[in-house]
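Bumping my old thread because nobody answered last time. Still need a sequence for this structure:
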């Protein structure tokens, strides 16, 4: 039997398994921390010069909607279009937050980070500000 510097194969194997197990446990703990941090995230965006404000949870679901009195002069379809546009912008702000959380927990270059952040980027693409500034295509001179 080959001799290991430490003296015997059994002891070396036990150290290897213990080290491997500790590494797996550490990765699992960091992944759990990422999961908890992501679940606690939210993002807020506003549109129409602050007349519409939407907050979304990490799932992308709307958790808060604030409309100021100016929207009472808008048509229902204008309100709906603006709320949806602002919600998409809020959702688009989630991926950068997830990327930050991933970098701080599992490492930005880890397979876990790439998978989680990629999922958010696909589900909730960032909406450029200039797209949202246009607002509802039917605004014309009404309600603004």
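Sorry it took so long. Here it is:
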């Amino acid at each position: 039997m080959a001799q290991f510097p430490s003296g015997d194969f059994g002891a070396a194997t036990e150290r290897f398994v213990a080290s491997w197990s500790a590494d797996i446990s550490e990765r699992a703990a960091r992944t759990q921390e990422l999961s908890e941090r992501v679940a606690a995230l939210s993002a807020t965006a506003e549109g129409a010069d602050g007349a519409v404000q939407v907050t979304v949870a990490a799932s992308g679901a709307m958790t808060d909607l604030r409309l100021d009195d100016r929207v009472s002069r808008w048509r229902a379809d204008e309100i709906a279009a603006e709320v949806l546009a602002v919600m998409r912008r809020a959702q688009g702000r989630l991926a950068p937050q997830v990327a930050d959380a991933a970098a701080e927990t599992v490492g930005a270059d880890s397979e876990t980070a790439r998978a989680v952040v990629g999922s958010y980027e696909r589900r909730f693409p960032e909406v450029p500000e200039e797209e949202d500034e246009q607002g509802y295509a039917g605004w014309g001179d009404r309600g603004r």
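The first helix runs from residue 9 to 39. Let me know if any region looks off to you.
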